[in-house]
Write a sequence for this structure.
């Protein structure tokens, strides 16, 4: 017999909160929380739809991870510290095995970052997962997209493009969800860059996470900052997992791959050494790929000469 | 040509915020907000799925209204003052007429209650609408489900069952969405009881909103409070819109009708006169339907004798 709605919540989504600032969690009409005094509240929400944001057949634990991770990545991009999450889960039926795996994936990531699940909604419908995350940042230290100036360096963290390569392995049938291929593991379990985001407080002049592709997202950052951007294609970071790809494929994955939680940000040039050192100490490499320039849009150069790069960021309703 | 994702947000969901506590609204990775000092943060989220929470063909403006109203009703049930909302909208395509109507319905209700839309997500997928609402309440004054004691009166606001009657008019084909029938209008545009919720601060010993049917929801309140409830069926409020129904139909609609935003709460008997007076001054009638008793569950009486009433509250995964 399928579980009822209230049994689903009681059995899978009512783990005890690890936080003292939760006055009332799952189970009443709303959650009651104690905001951190003097801090700005940071709130993000993202929705994952089966067949669009994750492939049919994706392990439930990976969906639970991703639904929270994509939101934590938004908080990382603000320099924020996450605190609480809410989950809205629409699903065709209440399959206990699926729910247990989903909850395990979500709670494992939540616990690593001290996040308490404090409420939500469970309804029957198509498989659509919405998570909201709330957190804090000192108001003046919040990282926005709009503060980059001409001359600022453009930095990207880690190894963009690897999750997109993993997705292509799965889509092509060359790998299964159970594969130990590093690209597939990264696609299913990419980690949001929360520690890096906090380290950038007071240093990054603008920041965002790379969710729709590096090139398209850099265009958004440049537009929000009312300046242009210029990047050197030779300087793009190419992860070991992409070493075997032809150059054009490497560039395509790094510039246009989505499902990434790397941070893209700008810095005054004299801050780069210090921030790179801090990041490396935390196990995160940084790469300077160019600088902000006068004008608008993103210019790509190879050997100092301007080149045209096809493709745009991901748009859900593009025809 | 259909609108792109970012055009949808810019065109329909970026109206200027009426609030000074929004540091950064729609358009960055997350919203930045200033919590009210000394208040508890109250957070609720609800999801509406086409064909489940609203009928196919429902006017978009009514869906926009309902998606926000169901959340504001949760805040009303906590005695909270709403401040901000986020919207996650999954929809098959970006139909401009639909979006404009949806946004009108949502913003009209938001503006009546001083709520700013500060962020969200727009994706392509089945029509699923999730709204999250954030607000404030003095921590000690928050209304919970769990504080009712033996002897407390059980009170319900307004006219429960009218929206459910409106839904049945639509489902049966006796009325259309354009109908001026008062039951249909109430179903499409029920108003959350925010003023009443705030008036109950410091008086209601327990409270919730009636979303899954009065009888089932009273059972939840009794269980959360670890006491029983006893109601007299003769005392149920019957709205003028239901006057023409047979008695059994009136009781069915009032006891089991969902899609209601009435408040169900308990009070010490000596507070009822004062609260009823306050509520009537605000245009909201109150009805005492029984009292909390020792034991568990909900007992229904007619002419003082116990009767069995069939039916339960709504459960999304009930077989």
């Amino acid at each position: 017999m399928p579980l009822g709605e209230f049994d689903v919540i009681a059995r899978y989504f009512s783990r005890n909160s690890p936080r003292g600032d939760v006055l009332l969690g799952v189970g009443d009409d709303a959650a009651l929380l104690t905001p951190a005094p003097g801090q700005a509240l940071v709130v993000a929400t993202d929705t994952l739809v089966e067949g669009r944001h994750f492939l049919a057949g994706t392990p439930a634990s990976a969906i639970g991870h991703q639904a929270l991770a994509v939101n934590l990545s938004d908080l990382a991009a603000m320099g924020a510290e996450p605190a609480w999450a809410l989950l809205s889960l629409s699903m065709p039926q209440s399959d206990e095995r699926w729910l247990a795996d989903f909850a395990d994936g979500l709670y494992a990531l939540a616990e690593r970052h001290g996040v308490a699940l404090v409420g939500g909604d469970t309804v029957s419908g198509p498989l659509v997962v919405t998570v909201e995350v709330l957190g804090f940042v000192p108001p003046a230290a919040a990282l926005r997209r709009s503060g980059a100036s001409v001359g600022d360096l453009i930095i990207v963290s880690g190894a963009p493009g690897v999750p997109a390569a993993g997705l292509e392995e799965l889509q092509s049938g060359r790998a299964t969800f159970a594969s130990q291929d590093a690209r597939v593991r990264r696609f299913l379990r990419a980690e949001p860059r929360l520690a890096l985001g906090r380290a950038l407080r007071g240093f990054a002049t603008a920041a965002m996470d790379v969710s729709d592709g590096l090139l398209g997202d850099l265009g958004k950052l440049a537009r929000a900052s009312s300046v242009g951007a210029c990047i050197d294609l030779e300087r793009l970071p190419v992860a070991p997992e992409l070493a075997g790809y032809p150059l054009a494929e490497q560039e395509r994955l790094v510039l246009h791959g989505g499902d990434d939680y790397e941070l893209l940000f700008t810095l005054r040039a004299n801050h780069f050494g210090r921030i790179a050192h801090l990041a490396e100490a935390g196990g995160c490499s940084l790469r300077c790929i160019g600088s902000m320039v006068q004008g608008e849009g993103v210019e790509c150069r190879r050997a100092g000469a301007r080149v045209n790069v096809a493709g745009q960021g991901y748009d859900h309703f593009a025809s």
